[in-house]
Each structure stands twice: as structure tokens, then as C-alpha cells.
Amino acid sequence: MATRSRLHVAVFLAPAVLVYTAVMIWPLFNTLRLALYAAGDEGRVFAGLANFATLFGDPRWSGAFWNALGNNFWFFFIHMIVQNPIGIALAAILSHPRLRFAALYRSAIFIPTILSFVIVGFAWKLILSPIWGIAPGILDAVGLKALFAPWLGREDYALTTLALISVWQFVGIPMMLIYAALLSIPEEILEAGEIDGITGWSAFWRIKLPLILPSIGIISILTFVGNFNAFDLIYAAQGALAGPDFSTDILGTFLYRTFFGFQLQLGDPHMGSAIATAMFAIILTGVCIYLFAIQTRMRRYQF
Amino acid sequence: MTQGRLGRLSGLMLTTALIATGAAAQDVTLTIESWRNDDLSIWQDQIIPAFEAANPGIKVAFTPSAPAEYNAALNSKLDAGTAGDLITCRPFDASLALYDGGKLADLSDLAAMANFSDVAKSAWQTDDGAHTFCVPMASVIHGFIYNKTAFAELGIEVPATEADFFAALDKIKADGTYIPMAMGTNDQWEAATMGYNNIGPNYWKGEDGRRALIAGTQKLTDEAWVAPYRQLAKWKDYLGDGFEAQTYPDSQNLFTLGRAAVYPAGSWEISGFNAQADFEMGAFPPPVANAGDECYISDHTDIAIGLNAASPNAEAARTFLEWVGSAEFATLYANALPGFFSLNSAPVEMADPLAQEFVSWRGKCHSTIRSTYQILSRGTPNLENETWNASANVIRGSETPEEAGARLQAGLASWYEPQK
After folding, report:
1. pLDDT, tens only, B346-401
2. I need a surface site. Which of A30, B39, B242, B328 has the fewest CB within 10 A?
3. Using CA atoms, how far apart are residues B345 and B343, in angstroms rounded to an integer?
4. How many domains does chain A have?
5. Nearest-CA neighbor of B372 among B397, B349, B390?
6. What are phi and psi of B341, to 5 degrees?
7. How many CB pairs under 8 A join A and B?
8. Model-level pTM?
9. Any chain A CB within 8 A of the CB of B225?
10. Do B220 and B372 meet the contact criterion of CB atoms below 8 Å apart?
């Protein structure tokens, strides 16, 4: 009997395991393997860690890599300090029992999340265009024309602008997750707090926030993985060269240029795989730090 | 019964096969591989009928694929032995790799090759120039397209020297009706292709400079290679507001809507601009330093056609290629696609006045190709891509011309032996 029930498990797991192995696990390990090879005179030759030595040792390659990594951290930082607080604030407002049209606001804020990156990139490029865009006109109407700059074309602002566009697109996700977490807080706890004199803002800070911290943790790690895998928005708005002067180059665009080549530059799948491996290592490290150092220490409450 | 029917059936099939072979023995069908799917109707309605009328017994089929997938699709077809007889050739390394791999036949002995200059053939030759493997079809020429109405309103003459050029731009700027020049740095390639490689040949003396750079006797830090960046740096003041975020389509629209007076151009814009703009346009070549100086233009080889080394119809294909090298083909092609100029040495009559203006510069200036395309963009960092970045930086003012030259030179020297 026992063996038969174990067979069950294998049969039911098989489709998912097979598909996942074929489209995710095998390509992942193959990419890691490809990073250890180089193009020789007669096809592919084993090169050991030579690609990584180039990536981190050659000043050109390492310069581009650290630039991309630094930009990636800035991209992530903007998301953490803008997207998540706004998401939490929106969720707190939406969960207010006396707010009217809550469902309408909720959908309106969530809709950009389901749009394609290409549409978002293109639409914002038009909105911010110094020639045809509506941004200069709107600023002019409120007398702030002097504040307008061709943000996407300036090295100092381009990356922050793109990060904020991405925040606009994805703020719906933390909002929804926190909203769900807030709704799951039982009324009795809040009432108990009220009896003890904790109401309004202090109820949020001292009762609700500690209870939604695990959700905030999950959102942070999702943001981290999403940002370090990002590529689409930068590519759609700025192209593969991630201008101006590589100021918006993140690991994803750096990987794309290297792996697939660009214009007269031929693709180098081996160096590309080395970059992909480095990205994998960075994301893995980040997720491990979260899982082992943060999540295990987070206090959970049972209702 | 069954056997009888089968026998009759196979007999029938044999007859059909015989008929088919009979037809094939009379008519050879040549298939052309190409990425120019935009040109399908031009080939089917104009070019192929003209050839077939003159060469009975040879049929030609034009079978293009999408530009972005052409190289990959062609490579796999060639490897599988299913590629067409005639192969449209990309310039430089993509086609050179096919020739080195034995996929393209050597066409050096084609009589029509005598109709093309060395510059015209350079994009489809081995590095030493000994073997040519594609018949050049067309090039694109760089220069400036201007709004004739705007120039007339402001009383500006077409500039011949740099001083005239900047005086004209100053005048347009002072008047304020038009943006002096329509260009942006957002897409980067505009700055390099329509900027640096447009005005540069006058400084590095065209082919002399380009060959010296390949040979390693000149460096990108030399005055001839830095000076074009100095001129680009001056352009900044004449571009529209927010040019940093202006894209290539933005620039095209600014010009064709009549909001900008001068457009640094490639001749491929001609047919699009003719359709969009409702004012009269003129063109002038990149201005020279002093009146009467020799002028140089970027006359960039872009498209050619070669012979699949494995083609069973090599004889007929060579007949076709000889025809592609003739003056008749040159006239047909250049008129069907204004802005794509025949590389044939024989003068070609063209109806489009703007195209005529562009091609007339070949008579008074020396032709060269874009400096970064041959050999110099084989390594990493890639000189062409770096030039995009440097040109855009210099125009925005975030890098000085000298810094740009030094950075490009260091990048090139890091992998290119003659520059070490």
C-alpha cells in the first residue's frame, strides 16, 4: 500500500517537474556550464574561469559590470524608498472603512501592472518628450516650466526617471498584497487596542504595521528579484546601449548586449553566460540573506 | 488488379517527372535570397521582367525574408544546402565570414567587376583586396538636407565652408522661426552616423585617413580624427530644446513638419521625406574648412549580390550577376529606389532632383565609406558602438573631443594589433 501511494506522488508531480526541468532548470545549469567555455579556432573550448577573470579583471569589462551593478542597486533603492511606502500608504487608505469608490481606485492603480513594458516605455517616452510630450505643457500651465528638463536624455536623471516609471507601473502589487494583509487583521485586536486607548495613527504604527511586516518582507524580496532581472523597460525606452552614456545600463541590458551582440558587435554567448552567472549569484545571495537572516528573525503572530 | 493500378500510377508519375525535367532543362530558375522585403514589388514588376526579357531561358524568383532574421535564416539555409542561387550580401564581416566559410563563390573574374571602383568593392573583398565575392548594388550618401523655403525666407545661401555653415546656423537661430538643426542624441547612432561619419571624411581625407587608421599609421587621437568631434561639440547650440531626449523619428518629424531648417542626413531619407514634407528640399555636402578645399563624402556601400558556391545553376547565375553589374540594372535600381545609389562607374540618369543633388557630389568630391565598418569593429570594445556613445557624449558636452579620441584609441589599441 505504501509503495502505491508513493507512486501516486511521483505521477502527480511528474508533469510539473518535467516541464520545469526542461524550461528552467536545464537551461539554467547549461548557462552556468556555458560560462566556463570560450570560442576557440575549432568550435567551443573549455576555458575554466577565464571568462570570469576577464569580467572582473579587465578594466573595461569590470568597469561596465560595476557600473551596471551600481545602477541596479540605485534602481532597487528607488523602488524600496518610493514604491513600497506608497504601496503601504495606498493600502492603508484603501482599507479605511469610510472611503468611497475604493474598488475603483484599487483597479485604477493596479491596471498599469498588467500593461506591457513596451507600451509603458513608449507611452512615458511620449509623455516626457520635450517636443511632443504633455509633461512640458502641464508644467507650463502651473507656471513651473523652468522645472522641465529632457529627463530621459540627461545622465543625472535618466535612471531615476526610469525607476520612477517602473514604480508607477508596479505600485499596484505592494498595494494589493498589503491591502490583503490589512484586511486579514481581526477586528477584535483593533478593538482591544481601542479600549487601551490606541487609535488612529498609533493603531497603524503599533498594531497594523507589525502585523503586516511579513508581507512587506515578501514584497521587498520580490522587488529585489524583479529589479535585478529587469531589462524590458530600459530596453524599450533607451535601447540596448542604455544611454545616455550607459547611465541607465543595468545587468539585464549589459547581458543582452554581450550575449546577443549589437549592431556591428557580434554576440559572445560565453561572456554573456558569465554575466548571467554573476547575476544569478547576486540574486541568490540576496534571497539567501533574506531567507536566513531576516525571515527567520521576523516575529509572527497567530490570531 | 491492384498491381496494374499501381503500375499505371507509377507510369503516370514517371511521365510527370519527365515533363518536369524537360521543362527544367529549358528554363533555369534562379532564386534570390534578400532582406529587402520592402523592395519585393520593385523586383517583381521592374527588375526581373527586364532581365527575363533580355535573357530567355532564365527565370528569376525574388524570395526575401525579414531584415532582422535574414542573417540567421541565411546561415542555416546555407548550412542545410537549401539556400537560393543568389545571395544578397550585407557589407563587410557578415559576408566575409560566408566567403571564408566557402559559402560564397569568388567573383573576381566577372567581367562586370571592371565597372566598379575599388571603394565600391571594398565592402565585399577579402582584407587584402585580392578576391571580390559580391557584385556591388547600391550605397547611401551622407550630407545635409535643408528646407529651401526657410533658407529663402532668411536669405541664406547654401553653405560651402564651415564658416558659412555656422554663420547660416547662427542666422537661423537669431531669427528664431526655425530650429537650426534637427538632431537628437537619444538614439546615439544619429550622432555617429549622421554626425561624425558625415562630416569626418573632410578632416581625415577620406580613404587616405581610413586606410591609414587600419594600417596603424594614424591614431584616433590625431587631429584629423578629433577635429570632427570638435565640430560636433559646436552643434549643441543649434539643436532643438531637449535634444538630449530627442529620438530619430522625432528628428525626422521636426524636419518634415517644417520646424527645423537643416537635417544631417543619409540619402535613404529621400523617398520618405518626399512623401512627408510639403516644402521644397535641397541638399549640400559636408562643408569644407576653406573655400576651394578638396571635399570628401561618405558614400557608404550598403548592399550587393553574390553567388551561392553550392548553386547548381552557376552559369545562369553568373549571367544574371553580369547583368546586375551593367549600366541598365544601375539605372533601373537607382530610379526605383531614390536614395540608394548605384555603385556602377557608369553615370546613372535619375529623375528625383534631391537624389540627383546627392549623387552629383560623386563628381566633385572623393568617396569614402564609414570609418568604423571595415575591420575596425571586429573586436571588443566595438569601435562602431563606442563611436555612437562618444559622438552623443561630445554633442551633449559630457565628454571633451580630446577625451573621446583618447578613449576610443585606448579601446581600439586594446585588441587591434596594428594600433598597439
Report:
1. 888 888 999 999 989 988 999 899 999 888 988 888 899 999 999 999 999 999 99
2. A30
3. 6
4. 1
5. B390
6. -95, 140
7. 97
8. 0.84
9. no
10. no
Q: Is residue A50 part of a domain?
A: no
CATH architecture of B2-137+301-349: 3-Layer(aba) Sandwich (3.40)
ipTM of the complex: 0.85
Interface test with A, best of B96, B380, B400, B409 (most A CBs within 10 A): B380
Where, residue-wise, is CATH 3.40.190.10 in chain B?
A: 2-137+301-349, 141-299+370-419
Asked if residue A41 is part of any domain, the answer here is no
Question: What's the pLDDT tens digit per position in A166-178?
Answer: 999 999 999 999 9
Rounded to whole angstroms, the Cα distance separating B50 from A84 reads: 67
Structural domain harbouring A250: 59-297
DSSP string, B315-384: HHHHHHHHHHTSHHHHHHHHHHSTTSEE-BSS----S-HHHHHHHHHHHHEEEE--TTTSSTTSSSS-HH
Chain B residues 53-112 with a CB less than 8 Å from chain A? 93
- A147: CATH: 1.10.3720.10
Whether residue B381 is preceded by a cis peptide bond, meaning omega within 30 degrees of 0, is yes
Of residues B118 and B231, which shows the higher confidence score? B231
User: Per-residue pLDDT tens for B230-275?
Assistant: 999 999 999 998 999 999 999 999 999 999 999 999 998 998 898 8
* Cis status of the peptide bond prior to A244, with omega within 30 of 0: yes
The letter for the amino acid at A192 is A
User: Which phi and psi angles does A22 have, rounded to 5°?
Assistant: -70, -40
Dihedral, B56, B61, B67, B73 alpha carbons, nearest 10? -120
Give, in order, the Cα–Cα distances in Å from B130 to each of B117, B124, B133, B375: 14, 11, 10, 16
- Give the angle subtended at the CA of A267 by the CAs of B218 and B105, to the nearest 5°: 75
Within a domain: A42: no
Question: Nearest 5°: phi and psi at B304?
Answer: -150, 180
CB contact under 8 A, B382 and A150: no
Q: Does B368 touch chain A (CB under 8 A)?
A: no
Q: Which three cell numbers stand for residue A295?
A: 525571515
pLDDT band at B117 (very low <50, low <70, confident <90, very high): confident
At which residue does the C-alpha cell 537624389 appear?
B355
Cell for B281?
A: 528640399
The secondary structure of A105-159 as a DSSP string is: HHHHHHGGGGS-HHHHHHHHHHHT-TTT-SHHHHHHHTT-GGG---GGG-TTTHH
**Which helix (H) or strand (E) segment is B63 a member of?**
strand B58-64
